[in-house]
Amino acid sequence: EVQLVESGGGLVQPGGSLRLSCAASGFTFETYGMTWVRQAPGKGPEWVSSITSSGSSTSYADSVKGRFTISRDNAKKMLYLQMNSLKTEDSAEYYCANLAEGWGKGNLVTVSS
Q1: pLDDT value of residue 109
Q2: What is the rounded distance in angstroms from the CA atom of residue 11 to the CA atom of residue 74?
Q3: Is residue 14 within a helix (H) or strand (E), and if so which, with residue range?
Q4: Residues 6+ away with beta carbon under 8 Å from 105
Q5: Element (H, E) at 52
Q6: Half-sphere exposure of residue 18, counting CA atoms within 13 Å on the CB side?
Q7: What is the pLDDT, as a whole number, of residue 113?
Q8: What is the mean pLDDT of the chain?
Q9: Spatial CA neighbour of 103 closest among 90, 112, 94
């Protein structure tokens, strides 16, 4: 059974940082590209970032480019999203996804003063 479990979210002030983690199990993690998707209240899902299976290539939405960094540790079957210079508009439920196998249940990030 594919499981993706996000952690590390919470409340942070504008300009602050958070690091999201995603623990993967139930599939051969090291052979899949991975993705972070977010959904703000009342809005549709928004692609945030993706990383290739080896971690050698990454891509970002324009809205987070230069502020967020995606990474992975294949030995630990972990996916990460380092979020810096957070803005109120970054507030959302953040999902870790293997687009072929499934999504996690999400982790809430709230950016507010």
Answers
A1: 98
A2: 28
A3: none
A4: 5, 6, 95
A5: none
A6: 22
A7: 95
A8: 97
A9: 94
Look at phi and psi of residue 79 and say left if phi exceeds 0, alpha if psi is from -120 to 50, else beta. beta
pLDDT, tens only, 82-103:
999 999 999 999 999 998 989 9
Q: CA–CA distance from 3 to each of 21, 46, 73, 109 (Å)?
A: 13, 21, 16, 21
Cα–Cα distance, 13 to 7 (Å, whole number):
18
What residue ranges in the chain does DSSP mark as E strands? 3-7, 10-12, 18-25, 34-39, 46-51, 58-60, 68-73, 78-83, 92-98, 102-103, 107-111
Between CA 9 and CA 75 the distance in angstroms is 23
Enumerate residues 6+ apart whose C-beta is below 8 A from 51. Answer: 33, 34, 35, 57, 58, 59, 70, 71, 72, 79
